[in-house]
Every structure is written in C-alpha cells, then in structure tokens.
Write a structure and sequence with these properties.
Blueprint: E1 10-14, H1 21-24, E2 31-36, H2 38-54, E3 58-63, H3 70-83, E4 87-92, H4 95-107, E5 110-115, E6 127-131, E7 137-142, E8 149-153, H5 154-158, H6 162-185, H7 197-223, H8 228-248, H9 252-260, H10 272-286, H11 291-303, H12 320-330, H13 346-366
Parallel strand pairs: 1-8, 2-3, 2-4, 4-5, 5-8
Antiparallel strand pairs: 6-7
Helix pairs in contact: 3-4, 6-7, 6-8, 6-10, 7-8, 9-10, 9-12, 10-11, 10-13, 12-13
Length: about 375
C-alpha cells in the first residue's frame, strides 16, 4: 500500500485575524455560506460577516443546529444550493466545522475554516466525524481534499473557556501515542494509506510543544492573554496534531472515546478532548507502559484538570454492563482499535478502563495530589 500525506492548502495564525480574513480568502470566491452556532455568531461570526460585506463579499448566514449528522448536512447543503455560493466558511470548532466540511464537499465549493477554539485537531483534516441526532458516534466520513484554508485568530481563542484549551491539548497529546501504535502495526492513516515519516515527525514535535508549553498556555488562557506559549500550543493543537493524526493514524485512544459516546447521562456533556484523555490512559495501560511513562502523562493531565478518574468522567457509578457497552463499541472492526500493534478484546478494554482509575488514584495518594 502507498504512503499518503495530506494537508490544507494554507494555514494562517495570528492575533485579530477577523479584520484580515477578507484579504486571505480572495482566491476562493466572493459569496460564502457562513456557518456558525448561535454562541459563535455572537462571539465572532457576526463581526466577521460585517468585515466581509464591507469588503464587497456576499454572505449567507446559517445557524448550526448542534450535531454533525447526515440530516444537518442535508439541510445546510440545500441552503447552499439555493443561494449559489462560491464557498463555505465554517466558523467555530468541532462539530460545526466538521459539518462545514461535509457541506462544501457536497456542493463542490471552496472550504474555509475560521477556528475559534484550540479544542481539537479537526480544522485541518479531510474528514468529518458523523453523529446520530442523539449525539452517538456513527461513522467517519472521508474526503478527497483537505480544507482550502484554516485561520486561527489567537485573540479570539484566548478568550475561550480554559477547559476547551485543555481539551485540545488532550486531543493533541493522543497524536504521537496513536501514530506510534499505528506505525508499529503498519496500519493505515486517515487517508487510507500507510503513515509517512513526515506525519510521525510532526506528531513527535507536537508532543514536545505540549509538554514544554501546555501548562503555561492553559494558565495564559485563564487570564485571557496571548503569549508565546499560547501561540505555540494553538499551533500544536491545531496544525501539528491535525497533520500528525491524519497522516500518522489513530488507534486506541480515539476508539475508546467513540465507545464512550455509546453512553448517555453526564458523560455525554464531556468534551471530545476530555473523553480522549481517558482514552489515552486506557491505551497506555493496554500497551503496558512503564510506571515512569504513566506518571509523566498522569502528572501532565492532572495539571490541566483533565478527567482521568472514573468519578471525574462521571462513570463512578457505571455498571460492568455499561463498560462492556463502551468496550464493544471501541473494538468494532470498522473503528481504529485495529491500528493497535496487537489484538485487543472488549474484555481487555474493560479491564484497562478500570485500571486507569486505580493507577491515577494511586498516583494522587503517592504524591499527595488533591
């Protein structure tokens, strides 16, 4: 099988990009469908529309419904067809921009992503995670091209909730762990090819940046200031992690995240990155990593207030049947647990999920961490 590497055509990052977006997107059209949820419209999308229209662009404002589902994609695609747009401008993060990708592909028009939180590595990728109307993971949908442009306004991102920055760091922290597993398994990356040297090298740099600057960036985000550490971590969370996971491949951590979406209740309100954090620890347990390595990751994630105990993930009262449901979903042959370099059963996953809780509680007691 061939090695495959993909990336967006352009990536732009800086403070106050709202006022400069119109000059960057000139090559991609003059009439854009601007997709954002109501909150993001108030934060930045409405201002962005004003800036674009002042520079003679035409816009069609569409409010995102909340789930990246086939039904929502169909609804917005219909609006795009009726308005004869040149491109889709997805504003926001996560599910909103995944929906924007799907709509742009359906319409065969340009795709611009204006990212508002460094909360995941979704913006640069050529795929969408599709959920049911109830928010349960359904499938990955892959595209034949990445976004034309990704814009990260670090001023906007610095104003966001700190737990979303921590979630993005968690999502990015999974990148090297999963790319390494995929490399060992000689598995497939997200382009349906084998991983590249470049993808693995980018994943390695991503993890280095996170450990060097992640806690500083999290603290800067709490104070809503743009610092060199925050700039570095925004790039790591978005560009480095995005290129690293897509070209390196994903494995156990995200498969376990997908398994968690099968549960309802409070866990359903946890962010993607928060659930990935527990998935990271579960994969490390499955790999039988050394105590030194486990403690390195545990210490880092606790400093970011990530939920890596059953109680923190609202699973302290989960039954064995609940955990079995998670595990069965995680090891489905169509998910990415197949990129682990050894066979993983549903029972292995259940035992590892429980072991994470034990290891983290032991770490807290050992080092007197509250």
């Amino acid at each position: 099988m061939d090695k495959v590497f993909g990336s967006p055509s352009r990536y732009v990052q800086g403070k106050d990009l709202v006022s400069r977006t119109s000059e960057y997107i000139k090559p991609y059209g003059t009439k854009f469908l601007v997709l954002a949820d109501e909150t993001v419209q108030e934060i930045v999308a409405n201002d962005l529309i004003v800036e674009l229209e002042n520079d003679d662009y035409k816009t069609e404002k569409v409010t995102f419904g909340g789930e990246c589902s086939f039904k929502e994609i169909e609804r917005i695609t219909k609006i795009g067809k009726e308005n004869d747009i040149d491109g889709v401008l997805g504003v926001g993060t996560g599910k909103a921009i995944d929906t924007a990708k799907a709509v742009a592909i359906e319409l065969d028009v340009s795709l611009i992503i204006f990212n508002t939180l460094a909360s995941s590595d979704a913006p640069t990728s050529a795929l969408s995670v599709i959920y049911t109307e109830d928010g349960e993971f359904e499938t990955y949908q892959f595209y034949n091209k990445n976004p034309d442009m990704v814009l990260n306004d670090t001023r906007v991102i610095s104003q966001g909730p700190p737990h979303m920055m921590a979630s993005g760091i968690s999502d990015a922290l999974a990148t090297l762990i999963e790319a390494t597993a995929t490399h060992k398994a000689y598995g497939e990356n997200m382009h349906g090819g084998k991983g590249t040297i470049a993808g693995l090298a980018i994943a390695e740099k991503c993890e280095q940046i996170l450990f060097d600057h992640g806690v500083q960036a999290y603290e800067a985000n709490k104070e809503k200031v743009v610092t060199p550490a925050l700039e570095a971590v925004v790039e790591a969370n978005t560009l480095l992690s995005g290129l690293g996971f897509e070209n390196g491949g994903i494995a156990g951590a995200h498969a376990i995240h997908n398994g968690f979406t099968a549960l309802h209740g409070e866990i359903h309100n946890m962010t993607h990155g928060q659930k990935v954090a527990y998935g990271i620890m579960t994969q490390l347990i499955l790999e039988n990593r050394s105590e030194e390595e486990l403690e390195r990751y545990i210490d880092f994630m606790l400093k970011l207030d990530l939920p890596i105990t059953m109680k923190d993930l609202h699973l302290d009262e989960a039954s064995d049947e609940d955990l079995r449901k998670v595990a069965e979903a995680a090891v489905k042959p169509e998910d990415t647990m197949t990129n682990m370099p050894f066979d993983v059963t549903a029972d292995d996953v259940v035992q590892a999920i429980k072991a994470v809780d034990v290891y983290v509680k032991s770490f807290k007691q050992k080092y007197n961490v509250s």
